[in-house]
Batch of 4 targets.
Target 1
Amino acid sequence: MAGQKPLRYADVGINLGDPVFRGTYHGKQAHEDDLADVIQRGLNAGCTKMMVTGSNLVESQNAISISKQYSGTCFATVGVHPCSTQDFDNYQGGSEKFLQDLKQLALDAKANGEAVAFGEIGLDWDRLFLSPKETQLKYFEVQLDLAIELQLPLFLHMRSCNDEFTALVRPRLEKLPKRGLVHSFTGTAEEMKSLVDLGFDIGINGCSLKTEENLAVVKEVPLDRLQIETDGPWCEIRPSHASSQYLKDAPAIPKAVKKEKWQRGLMVKGRNEPATIPLVAHVLARVKGITVEEVCDAAWTNSTTMFGLGEGATSD
């Protein structure tokens, strides 16, 4: 339609600090650093806001560094992923020193407008081999209280742990006016509705759209609680996923080649990035039976209301 506004996207879960975006895979350099290209491709696709995930102390520092370099486009989360919570006890100087350093990092980055959320924090009962339950529970609680102190909205991870997760967050909700986002959601309809009732938004990416069961849940996510993400370099929509049936008339994305054949300007096969976020919105629109414009407008409003992303104040 003439005069139609271009679609705009906020990728609220993107791991731009991962070495693959510098051309390094499993410790080996496969091609040149192309982070700037990845960000530019996202911008070209209408993805003008990217929230870079901090998953431990070093990755949170990386996320902040990227947000400084790409000010106004990239913003950071600061926190320790449940699978990395043993970092607290293994830190030089101990867990109290780790907590102090994490707090100071978040405080400084929030004051500078770089950190807009506390996370990625939460619980993951699917990967207890990385961090045992008691460690995850202890440091999820510690980090929830730190988020309250900092008054940052939450960026949350929840896998197969609904009851314990809810038991920890429910008593703290009134102290977190912005609540937060449960990202990369793959749970049941009942779990989704419970989270929405608690005031959380639901983050949808390719991993949220794998199966017919996933699609049935996503169809029920209220538009006013929906946010979208890629979770790149992971969570791409694959041909084997139930969601791929909805991509027949999807917008074109840049060509991808194997990393060994990399050329500047091309995506890398198996390395998801912000330029693919239109596919997530497209699938959501088809599943919900609404327009892509409605999906994009709702997700943009929800993300900028919760996290600011340079578009509005997040302080209460």
Target 2
Amino acid sequence: MATENTRAAAGAPVLDVEGLQTHFFTRGGVVKAVDGLDLKVGAGEILGLVGESGSGKSITGFSIIGLIDEPGRIVGGKINFMGENLVGASEKRLQQLRGKDIAMIFQDPMMTLNPVLRVDTQMIEAIQAHEKVSTQAARARARDALATVGIPAPDERLTTYPHQLSGGMRQRVAIAIALLNRPKLIIADEPTTALDVTIQAQILYEVQKLCRETGTALIWITHDLAVVSGLADRISVMYAGRVVESGSTANVIQRPGHPYTEGLIHSIPTRETHGSLLAQIPGMTPSLLNLPKGCSFRPRCPRATDACLEVPPVVEVSPGQFSRCWHATVAEPAL
């Protein structure tokens, strides 16, 4: 993990998102996929963005990197990257940033890889698009990147096409491409889901090392609290397009303040729960077309009262730990 000294030396955050609103204008109505989101990540810091499917995690990542297509668009807020607001930035400017200063690792590697180009062609182009280096030097960097993510015989893999690789191998190639130019910010959208645990552990180690040594900021998007508990410096928990809890990993995991966070943590298998039914959060995530009045989590919440019919405020439940809840309270250590 990034050290306290690394963060202190970083100064202003690499990314500072304020009140981000990304809506999709459909025939059925307006889908508020991201609705007033705030988050920050500093140099060398790893932020875990956690939540169930449909909470808006991936759309947050796409919004930051400027990959929202119609009928979706950013309707409010700021995305301050290295002091520059990217909301409303031209496509030319975003192309200059993508792959060099900001990289995204997609859940589906075929969103990154071109099926009709060899791996070496794609990796060399990714380097030469932003730097004036020889093909030989670019190829050497590409080979080293493949070795970093645990691909055996990297020289041979460079000459293959994506369809000749397994799904897990393609994902490792996509991760290697994101690491090529040592970006200032990496957005990783559940990139290790298709990988076995050994390779996953290796990649988690490598991205931690990258952040620590180069000052790269990382947003790790996942539904798996177990992964981010050992990876991230801080955690932001999303529900229905909003961050409902944020704070240091230790505080959020051990002493959650929001009932949704508490429910997620209690649903994780442990040695103590072996052989017994896991706790689960009742109900389903709400439709973003028809969100409940007030607190979006109200229909599923064990603490819900009439006060929850109004939008809850963000309160500080412990130093540096914030929760969006009328009844926020620091729980006893959950793990």
Target 3
Amino acid sequence: MSSPVQSTIHLSPPNPTTTTNPTQPAYILYFITGNPGLIEYYRIFLTHLYGLLFQESPSANSHIFGRSLSGFETTPPSPSPKPEPTPPFGLRDQIMHSEAVLEALVTQVQKDSGARDIRVILIGHSVGAYILLEVLRRQREKSNGVRIIGGICLFPTITHIAKSPSGRKSSWLLNLHPFARTAAIAARILTYPLPLPLLTPFLTKLLSFPRPAARITAAFIKSPHGVHQALHMARDEMLQITEDAWSDEVWGAAHPSGHEHARPVLRFLFAERDHWVADETRDELVRGRGRVVDGLLDGREEEGEVEEWKPLMEIDEDEGWPHGFCIRHSVPVAERVFGYVQHIIEIDSARE
């Protein structure tokens, strides 16, 4: 029997109160999914990343946490004594929910481990990178916000998603008001005769997915609100993810910010070809906001001109990792992200 599709993943020390020093920083890697927002797609990625962290520092108080975005739960919610908002949820809802869960998680880790110094690295995939930057912006505006020391944006869709190859093909359809609900009803009718044990092998062959990814996709299709939620949110993405929306407080600047905590270190990983990110959109962002690995920009050496405070942006020209890396490339991407995490912690430690 296959394991159930969970809505949260929390990887942490077996007994942090006895294996960690409360005077040392505790680190939370808080992962935000893409769309469709099922955290189970990323289990191999997160588990391998945690294994690398534990191998590097077995006694560290390190946590990895991720949750399915709201509305993507594969089982009906438990009855609540008070009325709760119901799916579908928009992009702004997802930002607020992600921020609220992060704040609650920091409080819980402090309580459980006794650590007084909690430092957070946000990791976001696809639209999760957009949510990441918005959560970061909101936390920097709070006087007692969570201490976020870094952000890692994987195959990010943070500007002009409608200009991407897939955005151009789908935006007109998503903008048809009844489309999301109609497609959800059609998916339910078409898959109704197939229980999960039969739908999974069918999707394995149809999509050429590994069986674990096909099982999660089957659970997504059969979930109470998943298909409607995904399409509703995709429409919001087309309408809201347009111009660069963030100030120097997020992107960084040469001068100090005056905030009690230093600006977070940002790392970006782009695919060489990404059907959800237009090449021109990516290149414009790199030119305007970032610096690139080894000081190369547009093939020109920028030695002496690189502004070290700018986010480091990397375009994968060697591995060929796709936008949906979590289907088949979780392990190598986790290894790359582990290097980013080490880099962020090293910079943060040097600031002490």
Target 4
Amino acid sequence: MINSLVGAAPAISVHGLSRTYGTGPAAVRAADGIDIDFPRGTWTAVMGPSGSGKSTLLHCAAGLERPDSGRIVLDDTDIATLDDDALAALRRTRIGFVFQSFNLVGSLTAEQNVALPLRLAGRRPEAGLIRDALAAVGLAERRRSKPRELSGGQQQRVAVARALVTRPDVLFADEPTGALDTGSARAVLDLLRRAADAGQTIVMVTHDPVAAARADLVVFLRDGRIVDRIAGPDVREVTDRLVGLEA
């Protein structure tokens, strides 16, 4: 097993994760017995060549897909064993997810989008909480704007605020800067760095060595297996490892 960072207990642990898509000769084994702990209060970047299994790991760990076998343990709960209703409730309260495509509701304002997870969980959003969440991502003045009135970087920051408003155990991010220009990407990465420094556990899939170098730990996958990791990464080291895997 790739061990967690020294001294940090896992926020979520993956044990023996396997996932195959398709059947027969066309079957693809996207995850092949993955074992990993994601340390509490740290930021882990997951990288690898196309088809390495990084998105499968992320989606299974976040409860968006079910593994064929293995355990995904959040505190004492194996989320792989939950039924659909229990899994949906857990995703609304204990897991945050940021998509590359933002996934904001176009008919809702920024503050309504941020409040949405709370409403879906049956909680009445406090106005101060929503305002604080938007202020934390630098968008307090755009709370009444709809997604079409915001830049891509601003939309992604709204998406991050929405994912964090429930104070999730783990924030998962799937290529959160992939659709952004350099300046917007830097702003989103700064936001994630501040969240991690404040104790938020973050797991991010990325293809970008610059984004990965902002994390505390980079984990590399190939052919559905973890093959390497770097603690305290820098851009050059991440780039060299990634090029080596793709070669």
